[in-house]
Amino acid sequence: MQNTKATVRIKSGPALTRRITLSGAAATTLAALFAPGFKAALADTAAPMADTSAYPAKAFAQKTKDDTIAALFNMTATASTDISFDAPDIAENGAVVPVSITTTLPDVTAIAVLALGNPFTLAQAYQFPAGTNPAVSSRIKLAKTTDVIALVQAGGKLYSVSKNVKVTLGGCGG
Amino acid sequence: MAGSILVRASSDGTATTVQALIHHPMDSGFVKDASGKLIPAHYIQVVEFAHAGTVVLTAFWGGAVSKDPFTKFSFKGGKSGDALSISWVDNLGNKDSTTATIS
Fold first, then answer.
1. Domains held by chain A: number
2. Residue at A173 is within a domain
3. For strand A108-115 and strand A97-103, is the pairing parallel, antiparallel, or unpaired?
């Protein structure tokens, strides 16, 4: 299972890659050589569990669009019309703003949402393994009226689409 | 934290659609309480969805994700009766996981 996770993360670009998972996989192989029972025990354990080893904490701490994109993807984004970004024109409650992203771009490995008016720009980022449809819906908080940007990483390139959302009641204590 | 995850997963034969709702305050660290004190940041950082031992979606969240976060996505494969596991960990190290059955 560690092997699977390692492949997935490597595909998502340099900033999201963690080599820790690689060394973990090597350790597993060694343990399997010396203790056959250990491998069986690993196979019995449940599916991969969430851990913070790959959490892009640096990207989440950035306060501008360019810094966030650089920290998360280490590349620049080009505008694309192949991304469908669904967010309300006017959000009455900034604490719950539904956002939905779908794209027709092939080989999508990651989708991220940036809210430029928030204290920290990056709201959320998703990693898409092969086989998962490149679409995600969720709800985010907006501190004030702002541009919201959806980023899609596909085939090693980064694409973006922007939408202005008017907020009548802020969601970050504002 | 047991029982924080509500999930509905259904397969149409070729793809599985997953809707998950996690009970969590998702405090961003910027909001003040009634007495004017800042509520410390407390939010989920990583959520992992897995089917048949393989991760189908990894979510990285900041404090700007809404309270009781909702996520909807779909992946190819998965059939009725399969297990789908969801696990999360927050910035304070709390975690929870559950296994749902695809309908």
1. 1
2. no
3. unpaired
CATH number of the structural domain spanning residue A22: 2.60.40.2470
Contacts of A35 (CB under 8 A, 6+ apart): none
Interhelix angle for A36-44 vs A20-34, to 10°?
130
CATH number belonging to domain B5-101: 2.60.40.10
What does pTM read for this prediction?
A: 0.80
Residue A85 is assigned to a structural domain of this protein: yes
Which residues in B lie closer than 8 A to residue A48 (C-beta atoms)?
48, 50, 53-55, 87
Structure tokens at A144: 């004030």
CB contact under 8 A, A172 and B51: no
Count how many pairs of residues, chain A against chain B, have C-beta atoms within 8 Å.
Answer: 151
CA distance A34 to chain B (A): 24
CB contacts of B22 in chain A (<8 Å) are none
User: Quick check: is A69 in a domain?
Assistant: yes
What is chain A's pLDDT, residue by residue, as a tens digit (174 residues)? 444 444 444 444 444 444 444 444 444 444 444 444 444 444 335 568 888 889 999 999 999 999 999 999 999 999 999 999 999 999 989 999 999 999 999 999 999 999 999 999 999 999 999 999 999 999 999 999 999 999 999 999 999 999 999 998 765 554
